[in-house]
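ok trying this again, last paste got cut off
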Amino acid sequence: MMRKNKFIMLIIVVLFLFVGKVNAVEEEDVTCNTRKLTELRQMASNVKVTYISGEAVRQLPTPNPEVDGTEETIYYLDVKIFNLNSKLGVKVSTKGNNITPETHDVGLSEMGPDGAVTLRQMASNSNIDYEFKVYAIEGNCTGKTLRTLRLTIPKFNMYSELDICKDVPDYYLCLRYTTYDVDGATFYDRVDEYKAKMLVQNETENNVNNTVSRTLSNLSKYKYIIVGIVVAVGVVITVLILRRKKSEV
């Protein structure tokens, strides 16, 4: 009887441990555990965002007196999201002055041939702030925010299109895109000052280059004389050394 009771107790203990183990496995399966979350966050750390500028020519549907011809150039910035995979999604939000806030989701299905999800932003007269919330779309971690990135898209600088900027396109007031306001009241004066400064600098560099060039030309012209002098000096020094050695002997 005692043996029977011990056997029954052993079965109860084994069943209890088995049920506990099953419950632990089930609990791990139905939660976003630390191991899985760490794995997803590692994936999210590889997500990169940037933008590149571009332009295109389009035909005007009707003649526009403000545009010369029947076509116009449009400018845009392509926002790129790299390194997404099937386990990650991104909630993209935009905001800015005179900009209607927008939010939408993107994922692997929008990826292009370059390996990036591309969001085209037409050139605007206001800076646009982008926020990218990378979240999980796998199992019980779905919806969990893994990382947040931010990117400011610069505004179009209308002054860059003026003729005064054509020969100094790299001057900061003539850049096509800026994050600051260009003061129209001082714009022309500051560009003219920069051009005058560059002119003086170029003239100085040209004078230096010409001086160096003339010096090298003169050295080339008298190279045989110079070589002869160097050889003669070498011979004299050698003779003096030999005489000194003989006198010491």
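PB: full thing came through this time. DSSP finds four helices and nine strands in the chain.
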